[in-house]
From TrEMBL:
Residues 60-90 are annotated as: Disordered. This is Uncharacterized protein. Residues 65-77 have a biased composition (Low complexity). The keyword Transmembrane applies. Keywords: Membrane, Transmembrane, Transmembrane helix. The chain crosses the membrane at residues 28-50.
Length: 90
C-alpha cells in the first residue's frame, strides 16, 4: 500500500467515525432541562415529605396507653445480654 492510498483510507475512516449517527441533535436538546426539572420536583417533594413527617412526630403523645410508667434506670449496656456469654458454661 502506498503512502497516498494509506492516507486516503485513513481519511475515509476518520470521516466515517466523525459522522453524526445520532439524528438531529437540535430536537433532542430538551433532555437536559427536563432532567433538571424532574430533579427539582423530587427535591421539593422531599422537603414537603420531611416537613410533614416532622409535624406528625411532634403531635405524637409522650406516652402511649399500656406503656410502663417509668423506664428501667441504669446503664443500657448492662441490660443487653450477650448470647455468647452463657452462665451455664464451665
Amino acid at each position: 500500500m502506498t503512502a497516498a492510498a494509506y492516507r486516503g483510507a485513513m481519511l475515509t475512516a476518520a470521516q466515517v467515525l466523525a459522522q453524526n449517527n445520532f439524528g438531529d441533535t437540535r430536537s433532542g436538546g430538551l433532555a437536559g432541562p427536563m432532567g433538571l426539572f424532574i430533579i427539582v420536583l423530587l427535591a421539593i417533594a422531599t422537603v414537603f415529605l420531611i416537613r410533614n413527617m416532622n409535624s406528625r412526630l411532634r403531635r405524637l403523645p409522650g406516652r402511649f396507653p399500656g406503656q410502663q410508667a417509668d423506664p428501667p434506670q441504669g446503664d443500657p449496656a448492662e441490660s443487653v445480654q450477650d448470647p455468647t456469654d452463657r452462665a451455664d458454661r464451665a
